[in-house]
């Protein structure tokens, strides 16, 4: 009996493990249509109008490609230098300068209002969507509904879906025109719906926060985002530096400072032997900085300032943040 009981227990345990390993959507008893009915009731309770729900939800179905992309995101295998070469090529640097010149009056006006240097807004615009050229071809509402129903990250995407419905309900864009990435990032600034509702701006005063086609709204929204997350216009993002061959800040020891995110004044870094990229003394400023070494001990080193942390709020990747700073420097 003991052997039979143990075997049965193992069998039941195996079934439970298999069940836990299955995608939650596959285990769900609720069909997508029934799930959508419940979502609609919750949206009505949140104040979304019937007209908006009819416009946005009628006839939508899960998008298998969205689920595939969510489950099979490619591993990030590029080295830092490969990433930088791909994201900040000379061709993009030239286009950034050209866009800056084309929109300089508007950019400077917005920069003065929000206290954000325009070159950073152009850099974000260029890296996120190639200056508005590549904004994503998915219908945002069905994409978010697919991810919310799927179950892997349903809580997060359900919230984003309600934010997206709110945007439509407020008249900023029609459901059929709300295009974005498979994960719901929208417009020329690639805001998630929740970021849109926090930071998007109606700079031209037409009653719509249009990050898809209105350049003034795109620039103002990006500027407002940076300002709200702590941007300061009295400093830049950071700089590439040369490390000393020995001591606390030498390449062999500097990774510990990178990993610990150790902040020191520029004068202290200078005393440790850190110099500018071309071997000059660091500027004597009362400015806190930390070392970032995205390519490891053998790669380049950067001293970054508090504005770098604001860029990380946009995208929590050192590769991305340094690319933004590097591209912005080409427009100085």
What does this structure look like?
37% of the residues are buried. This protein has 17 helices and seven strands. The chain has helices at residues 2-21, 24-27, 32-45, 50-57, 64-71, 80-87, 90-102, 104-114, 118-129, 140-150, 154-169, 193-199, 215-228, 251-260, 266-271, 306-314, 318-329, and strands at 138-139, 179-180, 238-242, 263-265, 275-276, 288-292, 301-304. Helix 8 runs parallel beside helix 13. The strands form two sheets. A five-stranded antiparallel sheet has the order 4-6-7-3-5. The radius of gyration is 24 Å and the shape is globular. The protein is α+β, with helices and mostly antiparallel strands and 332 residues long. The chain has a domain at 238-304.
**How confident is the prediction overall: mean pLDDT?**
91
Output the number of helix runs.
Answer: 17
The proportion of residues forming helix, as a percent range, comes to 55-70%
**For the CA atoms, what is the radius of gyration?**
24 Å
User: Which structural class best describes the helix and strand composition?
Assistant: alpha+beta
> What portion of residues belong to β-strands?
5-15%
Distance between the termini: 80 Å
Which spans have pLDDT < 50 for at least 5 consecutive residues? 1-27
Number of strands: 7
> What pattern of helices and strands is seen along the backbone?
HHHHHHHHHEHHEHHEHEHEEEHH
């Amino acid at each position: 009996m003991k052997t039979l009981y143990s075997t049965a227990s193992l069998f039941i345990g195996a079934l439970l493990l298999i069940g836990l390993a299955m995608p939650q959507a596959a285990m769900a008893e609720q069909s997508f249509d029934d799930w959508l009915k419940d979502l609609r009731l919750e949206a009505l309770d949140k104040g979304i109008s019937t007209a908006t729900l009819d416009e946005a939800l009628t006839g939508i179905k899960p998008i298998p490609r969205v689920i595939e992309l969510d489950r099979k995101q490619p591993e990030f295998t590029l080295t830092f230098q490969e990433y930088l070469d791909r994201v900040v090529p000379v061709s993009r640097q030239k286009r950034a300068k050209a866009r800056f010149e084309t929109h300089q009056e508007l950019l400077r006006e917005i920069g003065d209002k929000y206290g954000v240097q325009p070159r950073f807004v152009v850099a974000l615009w260029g890296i996120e969507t190639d200056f508005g050229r590549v904004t994503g071809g998915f219908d945002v509402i069905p994409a978010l509904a697919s991810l919310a129903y799927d179950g892997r990250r349903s809580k997060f995407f359900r919230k984003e879906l309600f934010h997206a419905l709110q945007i439509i309900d407020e008249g900023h864009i029609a459901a059929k025109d709300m295009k974005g990435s498979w994960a719901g990032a929208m417009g020329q600034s690639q805001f998630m719906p929740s970021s849109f509702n926090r930071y998007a701006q109606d700079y031209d005063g037409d009653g719509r926060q249009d990050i898809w086609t209105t350049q003034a709204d795109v620039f103002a929204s990006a500027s407002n985002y940076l300002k709200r997350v702590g941007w300061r216009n009295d400093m830049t993002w950071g700089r590439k530096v040369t490390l000393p061959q020995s001591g606390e800040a030498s390449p062999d020891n500097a990774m510990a400072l990178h990993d610990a995110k150790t902040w020191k004044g520029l004068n202290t870094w200078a005393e440790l032997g850190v110099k500018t990229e071309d071997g000059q003394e660091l500027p004597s400023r009362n400015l806190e900085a930390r070392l970032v070494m995205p390519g490891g001990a053998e790669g380049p080193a950067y001293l970054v300032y508090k504005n770098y942390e604001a860029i990380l709020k946009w995208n929590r990747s050192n590769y991305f943040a340094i690319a933004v700073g590097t591209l912005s420097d080409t427009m100085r």
